[in-house]
């Protein structure tokens, strides 16, 4: 049950109300933004909620118990605080969201309606749709370790312990390809072995894609020319001379961990776990043969 202040409860009981929805978003990079459906800015709980931000919300449904409460917020890139680059870079993914009901005529009166996180953020042209997921949605996520052949750690995290700040773990690549394509010809990586950056990350520091990162599918070298193949094409057209920081990749196998990174002691997988062939195999026994020996039966 929501706890209303005495003043807000009296306002709700008065018949006509002056209430508006306000959203406060805290991104993973620490940036805090406020938006409201009202036609004027509202200052509440230390945050200025911007009006005319293009935000509209779907019907809000909430239930008792641990059921997951979701709604969607859609809008256009009409707010200067929201830009296409931040959306594409994933800075709003899993951002913390607080939804308030505020009396715009007296902003000291307000109540928290819901808290949660942004789910999938979809973009089409200058419009976007963001899914809100309540705190109970976290209960749907798996907790604990998974037994698998490949490593479960993220390269460079506290479990992996590989130092990605070392000069051998990253390089500066200069694009020699213009336009939008998954295969990017680059210079600047001749000091690294071919395939070194496969499964790594390409993060642009200049050009139209500055601030955006893309996963690398393959790092190839043909006749001395380095080619970075991305899993998906860049969002904006590349220009010759665009610079990107390229981070080493890991295929997460024990052999790669041991030979490429000399990090076998921190491998977080189970390379000797039995496979499906072992699960589906059947028991065998020795069957006496006609010559007095035995035949191995299956």
Automatic annotation (TrEMBL):
NCBIfam families: phg_TIGR02218. Signal peptide: none annotated. It comes from Methylosinus sporium. Residues 195-277 form the Bacteriophage phiJL001 Gp84 C-terminal domain. This is DUF2163 domain-containing protein.
């Amino acid at each position: 049950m929501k706890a209303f202040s005495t003043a807000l409860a009296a306002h709700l009981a008065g018949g006509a109300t002056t209430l508006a929805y306000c959203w406060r978003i805290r991104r993973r990079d620490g940036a805090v933004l406020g938006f409201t459906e009202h036609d004027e800015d509202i200052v509440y709980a230390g945050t200025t909620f911007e009006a005319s931000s293009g935000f509209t919300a779907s019907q809000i449904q909430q239930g008792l118990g641990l059921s997951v409460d979701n709604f969607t917020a859609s809008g256009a890139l009409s707010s200067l605080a929201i830009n296409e680059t931040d959306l594409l870079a994933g800075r709003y993914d899993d951002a913390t969201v607080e939804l308030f009901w505020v009396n715009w005529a007296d902003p000291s009166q307000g109540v928290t309606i819901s808290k949660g996180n942004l789910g999938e953020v979809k973009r089409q042209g200058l419009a976007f749709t963001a899914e809100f997921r309540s705190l109970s949605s976290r209960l749907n996520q798996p907790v604990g370790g998974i037994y698998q052949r490949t490593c479960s750690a993220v390269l460079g995290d506290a479990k992996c312990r590989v130092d990605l700040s070392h000069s051998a773990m990253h390089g500066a690549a200069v694009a020699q390809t213009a336009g939008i394509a998954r295969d990017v010809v680059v210079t600047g990586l001749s000091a690294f072995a071919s395939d070194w950056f496969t499964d790594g990350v390409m993060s642009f520091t200049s050009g139209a894609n500055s601030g955006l990162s893309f996963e690398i599918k393959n790092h190839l070298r043909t006749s001395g020319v380095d080619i970075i193949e991305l899993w998906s094409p860049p969002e904006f057209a590349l220009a010759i001379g665009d610079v990107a920081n390229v981070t080493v990749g890991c295929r997460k196998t024990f052999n790669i961990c041991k030979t490429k990174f000399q990090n076998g002691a921190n491998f977080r997988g189970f390379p000797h776990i039995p496979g499906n062939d072992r699960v589906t195999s059947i028991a065998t026994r020795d069957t006496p043969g006609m010559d007095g020996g035995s035949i191995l039966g299956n």
